[in-house]
Design brief:
Layout (H helix, E strand, L loop, with lengths): L17 H13 L8 H13 L4 E6 L3 E7 L7 E7 L26 H17 L6 E7 L8 H7 L2 H4 L2 E10 L7 E2 L3 E4 L1 E10 L3 E2 L9 H18 L7 E10 L5 E2 L2 E10 L2 H21 L3 E10 L2 E3 L1 H15 L4 E2 L12 H6 L2 E7 L18 H15 L3
Parallel strand pairs: 3-4, 3-5, 5-16, 6-15
Antiparallel strand pairs: 1-2, 2-4, 6-16, 7-14, 8-12, 8-13, 9-11, 10-12
Helix pairs in contact: 1-3, 3-10, 6-7, 8-10
Amino acid sequence: MRIRENNRFGVKRFRELQAEATSWRRHLHRNPELGYRLENTSKFVREKLASFGINRIETGIAETGIVAMIKGEGGDGPTIGLRADMDALPIVEASGKAWSSEVGGYMHGCGHDGHTAMLLGAAKYLSRIRRFKGSVALIFQPAEEILPSGAQKMVQEGFLDIFRISQVFGMHNTPGIEIGQFGICHGPILSSLDDFDLIVKGKGGHAAKPHEGVDPIVIAAQIILGFQILVSRQTNPIEALVISVTKINAGTAYNVIPDQVHLAGTVRTFSPGLRDFAEREILVSSKGIARGLGGDVELNYRRDTPVTFNHPTETDLAIRAARALVGSSSVNTKMPPRISSEDFAYMLEARPGAIIYIGNGPTAALHNPAYDFDDEVLPYGIGYWVNLVETVLEP
């Protein structure tokens, strides 16, 4: 497929940054860090931003997060935020690349090294050619992969108010979409994520005399089946609700019925109403089943990440910026929402904005030991950020 390019908005003007951005990306890939412990990553980002002549660089936000400000030459205007995540994953890398992780047990398995490099590339370009009004806040976020998340903590610390950010935008790479293509949709684009621990209580005893006790394993089996009835018979089939039991722990011996069973799992949906339903009905259903069989339950339900919701105006702006870069045919504006979560949702709850997906080609899946961010993506990501700024903050 031929990608349309033009002098002002096309990707051609950003290819000169690819070699340098590739070196940044591969350095970050060799040196992954986890969660909030991003001291070296944060230092690297801060030094690069300073080398671009950016004067306002605020560090220590949510421990190792950074916000850098670039003011345009087009006069007064609003401030928009561009966000990249920086943390890696606790995975042993199996990509076989020359720039593979040099830190045992850690790797950039989700492309955050690429996200950081693309925003650094945009920072260098925008600091040199300030063809916009208002200001841009470059947001380098820690701890996207853990809970409590970095985005949540940054929002709680009030960074959006401190930097007077009126709109926020995110971008994430995705394997399976061709390089040079983008995907986005209006409204919910990623599901919420909740998790739960459920203790099923019974009365233990000898496996040869089950009638003298209350078998929590049998109760737990009925509860698991009951969860599927909640999904298939008590919710609208047009709406998505996924309840997955992912852990079952019980018993220590072949001939002993245990006192209790520990179930754990996740709940995902695009609907805040179904999120409320799931939290309420998981307890009601499991308690009813358990008590009907002589046992009881104890539930600990945690709301981890809200629905990632693309706001209408900002989604249209993101589409315009991507189309100007690669042409309309290379931007899928009706990408199906995904049953996965993203803590950028916290920023989108606090401010209007949108997240877009950028193609990473036919690579291994995210969070796979063989995954690697494709450096051919870098000029497209840099170009998208710059086009977005020049679209939203047009002088």
